[in-house]
Amino acid sequence: MYLIAIVRLVTEFPLPPEIEAAPVLEP
Q1: pLDDT tens, 1-27?
Q2: Burial letters 6-23, b for 16+ CB under 10 A, else e
Q3: Distances from the Cα of 5 to the Cαs of 8, 10, 12, in angstroms?
Q4: Cβ-proximal residues to 14 (8 Å cutoff; 6+ apart), any chain
Q5: Model-level pTM?
């Protein structure tokens, strides 16, 4: 559920490369 919310937030409000490349998004 949280994953969907995060994806929608990123899609609607693109984050800076610094946050997009955060280790949290990479398993």
Answers
A1: 788 888 887 777 766 666 555 565 555
A2: eeeeeeeeeeeeeeeeee
A3: 5, 9, 11
A4: 20
A5: 0.34
